[in-house]
Each structure stands twice: as structure tokens, then as C-alpha cells.
Design brief:
Blueprint (H helix, E strand, L loop, with lengths): L1 H8 L4 H18 L7 H22 L14 H23 L9 H5 L4 H22 L6 H8 L2 H15 L2 H14 L8 H16 L5 H32 L12 H13 L3 H15 L3 H9 L10 H10 L14 H9 L16 H13 L1 H20 L4 H15 L6 H30 L2 H4 L3
Helix pairs in contact: 1-2, 2-3, 2-4, 3-4, 3-13, 3-19, 4-14, 4-18, 6-7, 6-8, 7-20, 8-9, 8-10, 8-19, 10-11, 11-12, 11-13, 14-17, 15-20, 17-18, 18-19, 18-20, 19-20
Length: 457
């Protein structure tokens, strides 16, 4: 606080800089529990980055915060409304998770219950099957979302393998799998490399909690630094690379083989110079920052378009209880349509191979205004906290429980996610979790536990 306060006072934007520095400390107070993996904390911290990143960028280039945004008129209001919204969600989570304690359990001891060879074998099978089932899910209509959510439980295996590898000293094989997964993640139109770095970083915190060795501290810095550098390079080469993948089509598809994709990506990276890195850094900042949409929405609502009085939130909840498999005529989600309507700007939609969302916090503002918007966000935080608590409290040990909440983390760490998708994603996660717990979890544990640990099941 002291160092941050000095930096804020000497910065170009002292007030909002101080708030930006204070907010992570508030999140630590609300969501960090030393005896648990900090997935909820990092989910909200990542979202807050979309709000505050241009505070530090504007300070670095010594200009006013409003000057680095495309919709500056209400940008300061959007900054505060977004942080208050994230605080409301965090407070809802806090009221639930503060009431239980898993202090007596240990990740390392739980990790040793698993056979490293069995885990690697199961993970490799899941990694091979994943892209085939993912592609197939889009042809199955109403089953697409349940299948997608089921596939996200691959992350649970990844986390268990991570902790087991460090607990048993079998780190080399895990690192090889990590690097291969990161490389292969670039072969599709959308890359999931950020997820691998995020989860590896948090997983290493799990392994090193309460005993952070210098080697682990260096590893954490390397993971964070490598992830940021790759993100910068990716933002620079992404436009040309995606154009190549889609063969010039206005569609979010890849028409190339893995070998062709990686060969093209390598050539683009090899051509990247210092100017390219600077361009990538600027694009990364712009990509991370997402409050311009809320600022533009405030300019439109309610002066030109009236608040919708809960129709967006109720619509998102209605979609949860209208699965497409039973309601095949349910209207498809068009994020760009909402963005165009409530900002007054023309954003490319599905017809041009794009999807631009307002973000669920901006949609909450459209529904209830700058005060009322925080009530459903607070209740949504309670819901997430209840699901998180239920999963951890009903798991055989802390590692399995933590692994099972990783798909929930994937659903909630994006500030930009549309309301329909984040609400539907959280509910669908919990439904699929219940299916996994009832029909698959015990079989999975038997297949990957050591012979001694199987006896305790």
C-alpha cells in the first residue's frame, strides 16, 4: 500500500491509479484463503485487469486516462462501475466461502495418492480425444454445450497431473506435456495458450503454498514472463495468421493442417522485429482493456435507449432452463447484435465471421442502471460461491475438489463474456459436474490412483 501510494501520487492519474492498486488488495482480503487454491481470486483479478490495464499504460506514456480510450466520455464512470461490479461479485463469493475451512488437508499428500504413469496415460488419451469431440459437438445441435462443458474437465486431469508431478518429482514429463499442449493450442483459429499459463501458474502456487522456495519463485516469474511475451507476439501475428488459417474466409475456422498452421506461425514469428513487438504490446493492452463498451453503453442508455429492467438477466436465466435439445428453435446468441444496439456502434457480427460482446457487467448496467446493476452481480457471486463450496466439500480430497473447480474458473475469468454465456456456462458446469461426480469420478480415481490408494476408495 505504501509503495503503491507513492507511485499513485507521482503518476499522471493519481486517484484512479490508487484505486487500481487498492483493488487487488481488496480481492485478497475477500477471496484469498491460504489453505485453498486461489482460483476464485485469480478469476476476479484477471477480470479486473480488463478494467485497470490502461491506467498503468496511460501513466507509462504520461497522458490522461481518458486519452487512451476510443469512447472516453464516460470512461472514468465505466472504470468505477466495473470495479464496484467486480467487488459485488467478490463480496457475494466471500460471504459463502468464508464459512468453511479445509486447513487440515494437504495438496502434496493428496497428490502422492496418484500414479504418475497412469495419470499421464489418461491425460494423453483425453488430449487426443478432445479436438475430435470438440469438432463433433458443433454438429450435434442441442448437445453442443453439454459436450463442450464435459470436455473442459480435461483441465481437472491437467491440475491433478501437475500437482502429482511436483509432489512425486516427475516434473520433466509434465513440462513436456505442457509445452506440447501450448504449441498445439496455436493450430486452431482460437488459441488456449493463456489458459495453460494461467493454470500452470496457479498450480505452482498450490504446490509451493506455505513454503515458497527460491526455485519456485523464479519458476513463477518465468511462467508469468513467458506467458506475457507470447501474448505480445501472438497479438502481433494473429491477424495475418488467422487470415491464413481461414483461407481468407469471413469465418472463425481453420482450413489448414497442424503442420501447415505451425509452419506459417513459425515464419510469422521469425519475421517479427522490434517494431512488431511494440505493435504487439500496444495490441495486447488494447485487447486486455474492455471498459470502452461500458462507456459507450452509458452514452446510449438511458439517454437514447431505456433501461431494460431485468430482461437481459431474466433472458439469460430462461435460456438455462430451455436446453436446445428440447427447444431446437431457441434463438441463437448474437453477441454483436447487443453490442450494436446498446453502444450505437457498428460491430461485425456472425455474418462477417466475428462476435463482439458487451460483457456481462455492461449488460447488467443496461438492465438496472448504475446502482441496481450490482444487486444481480452480488447474487451471482453468491451462486458461484455456493457451487464452489459444494464441489470442494463433496470431493474425496482437496486436490480432487480443486481440480473439479478448474472448469468453473475457465467459465468466469473473462470480463468480456456475454451475460447469456457466463450464466449459462456456470449452470451447465454444475450440471455436468454432478454427472461426472455421479457416474465417472470413482471410475477415474480407480484408474489413476496407486494400488494402495485404490483400497481406500
Amino acid at each position: 500500500m505504501f509503495i503503491g501510494g507513492i507511485y499513485a501520487l507521482t503518476s499522471h492519474n493519481p486517484t484512479i491509479t490508487f484505486v487500481a492498486i487498492l483493488f487487488p488488495l481488496v480481492l485478497i482480503k475477500l477471496l484469498w484463503k491460504t489453505n485453498e487454491a486461489p482460483f476464485l481470486f485469480f478469476a476476479l483479478l484477471t477480470q479486473s485487469l480488463a478494467v485497470v490495464v490502461k491506467v498503468f499504460y496511460s501513466n507509462a506514456i504520461d497522458v490522461d486516462f481518458t486519452q487512451v480510450h476510443d469512447n472516453p466520455t464516460h470512461i472514468v464512470s465505466a472504470f468505477y462501475l466495473s470495479l464496484i461490479g467486480l467487488f459485488s461479485i467478490s463480496l457475494g463469493m466471500h460471504l459463502v466461502i468464508k464459512t468453511f475451512d479445509l486447513r487440515s488437508l494437504d495438496y502434496i499428500e493428496a497428490g502422492k495418492k496418484f500414479s504418475n504413469k497412469k495419470l499421464i496415460r489418461i491425460y494423453i488419451i483425453s488430449a487426443i480425444v478432445y479436438p475430435t469431440l470438440f469438432a463433433l459437438s458443433f454438429r450435434l445441435g442441442g448437445l453442443q454445450q453439454p459436450i463442450y462443458e464435459l470436455l473442459q474437465f480435461k483441465w481437472a486431469i491437467f491440475v491433478i497431473l501437475l500437482v502429482n508431478s511436483f509432489a512425486t518429482g516427475n516434473v520433466k514429463n509434465f513440462l513436456m506435456i505442457f509445452f506440447i499442449e501450448v504449441i498445439l493450442s496455436f493450430t486452431g483459429y482460437f488459441s488456449a495458450f493463456k489458459d495453460y499459463f494461467f493454470i500452470f501458474f496457479i498450480g505452482l502456487l498450490i504446490v509451493s503454498r506455505n513454503r515458497l522456495k527460491p526455485s519456485y519463485a523464479i519458476a513463477l516469474l518465468l511462467i508469468a514472463g513467458a506467458g506475457l511475451y507470447i501474448m505480445v507476439i501472438w497479438e502481433h501475428v494473429k491477424p495475418e495468421y488467422r487470415l491464413y488459417l481461414s483461407s481468407g474466409q469471413a469465418a472463425q475456422v481453420s482450413t489448414k493442417s497442424n503442420g501447415e498452421s505451425l509452419s506459417k506461425l513459425y515464419s510469422l514469428i521469425a519475421e517479427t522485429n522490434q517494431e512488431g513487438i511494440a505493435d504487439g504490446f500496444y495490441k495486447t493492452v488494447n485487447r486486455l482493456s474492455y471498459i470502452d463498451f461500458l462507456s459507450a453503453t452509458e452514452a446510449q442508455v438511458p439517454s437514447n435507449i431505456a433501461h431494460t429492467n431485468g430482461s437481459l438477466w431474466s433472458g439469460a436465466l430462461e435460456r438455462v432452463f430451455e436446453p436446445r435439445i428440447l427447444f431446437p428453435n431457441k434463438k441463437a446468441i448474437d453477441d454483436s447484435e447487443k453490442a450494436r444496439l446498446y453502444t450505437g456502434h457498428d460491430y461485425a457480427g456472425a455474418d462477417r465471421g466475428a462476435s463482439i460482446s458487451l460483457g456481462y457487467i455492461a449488460e447488467s448496467y443496461v438492465d438496472f442502471g448504475e446502482i441496481g446493476m450490482h444487486v444481480p452481480l452480488f447474487l451471482f457471486g453468491i451462486l458461484i460461491g455456493l457451487i464452489y463450496k459444494s464441489v470442494l466439500m463433496n470431493s474425496p480430497n482437496i486436490l480432487v475438489g480443486t481440480a473439479l473447480v478448474v472448469p468453473l474458473y475457465i467459465e468466469i475469468y473473462n470480463y468480456e463474456k456475454a451475460l447469456d454465456k457466463v450464466v449459462g456456462g456456470v449452470f451447465m458446469y454444475f450440471i455436468i459436474y454432478l454427472v461426472v461426480k455421479r457416474f465417472l469420478l470413482k471410475k477415474f480415481l480407480k484408474s489413476v490412483y496407486t494400488d494402495e490408494s485404490v483400497q481406500s476408495l
